[in-house]
Amino acid sequence: MVGLVALLLTGCSSGSSLLSGDDGEGFAAKIFGSGDAVSPDLGADPDGEPIARMYNSGLEDIRNGNYRTAVKKFSEVERQHPYSKWATKSILMQAYAQYQRNAYPESISAAERFIQLHPGHRDAAYAQYLIALCHYEQIGDMRRDPTAARKSLAELEEVARRYPDTPYAQDARGKANLARDVLAGKEMEVGRYYQRKKAYLAAINRYKTVVETYQTSSHTPEALYRLTENYMQLGVRSEAQTAAAVLGHNYPNSQWYKDAYSLLQGGGLSPQVDSGSWLSSIFGS
Questions:
Q1: What is the pLDDT of residues 215-224, one digit of tens each?
Q2: 267: closest CA among 237, 242, 246, 230?
Q3: What phi, psi does 194 have (nearest 5°)?
Q4: Using CA atoms, how far apart are residues 280 and 50, in angstroms rounded to an integer?
């Protein structure tokens, strides 16, 4: 969130506009800049000055960190002038202000409303990204309920899929990797629990999920070692050998491979790929 705030402040000084295109400067720079201020001179519109005062006052509240008050003002702009472009902008500003005060459900609701009402808007990408951020920042440690991590991963992948050429997509991909790591860690924790209880098949299923679904996570080397352990316990030698061989091929210098190699040697075996193994279909023979 620190980086996002910094980009917003950069936007204030650069005059970026809510309606400007992606310029690589950052995610929210174009959401909140001095260029967003409403001119008091709105021609013949008798409500022009009230809109200007209310909207600009909301911007000033955000600059000063008064996010709750800002939400009220942007909500009022939307209520009083529902068909104006400032109502459109105000919905997104509500979403951002709610995000800043860690009111994640409210921020998600406003961002989703923006997307529903304006699906083709150029800032729909930012709204989608904001939804992902709200879920992402609710990820706790891996021992807690992984629901937030799952939702975060789904939303981050949606940002990358729907808006691949935006700065949001690049950041979303990086954050998605962390979400996958959290989810893989949860599977590992449960797998270790089953293994301690000698429920080897149940443990294997958890480690298998890590290898199949979260293959790029930092937990994959350990998962392959644990598969070697559990298959050895069950006497499924070919799968144990394959798991160790895959581990050695992909992580040859890891301690996990050294431990797997020693484990097999203790049973008179060596790492060897079975082309019929499910691991071969994932990693290739």
A1: 999 999 999 9
A2: 237
A3: -65, -40
A4: 67
Nearest 5°: the CA angle 133, 138, 129 is 10
Rounded distance, CA 207 to CA 5, Å? 38
Every domain of the chain with CATH number 1.25.40.10 lies at: 2-137, 186-283
Closest CA to 11 of 74, 51, 63, 69: 63
Q: Cα dihedral sign for 273, 275, 278, 284?
A: positive
Contact 64, 72 (CB under 8 A): no
Residues 83 and 45: beta-carbon distance below 8 Å: no
Q: Can you give the length of the chain in residues?
A: 285
Answer yes or no: are the C-beta atoms of 102 and 93 closer than 8 Å. no
CA–CA gap between residue 87 and residue 85 (Å, rounded): 5
Report which DSSP code applies to 192: H
- Say what the pTM is: 0.75
pLDDT (tens digit per residue) in 82-115: 888 889 999 999 999 999 999 999 999 999 999 9
CATH assignment of 2-137? 1.25.40.10
- What is d(CA 106, CA 206) in angstroms, rounded to the nearest whole number? 35
Burial (CB count within 10 angstroms: exposed 0-12, middle 13-18, buried 19+), residue 120: exposed
User: What tokens appear for 113 in the block?
Assistant: 């409303």
Res. 78 pLDDT band, cuts 50 70 90: very high
The yes or no reply on domain 186-283 and CATH 3.40.190.10 is no
For 151-203, the pLDDT digits (tens) are 999 999 999 999 999 989 999 999 999 999 999 999 999 999 999 999 999 99
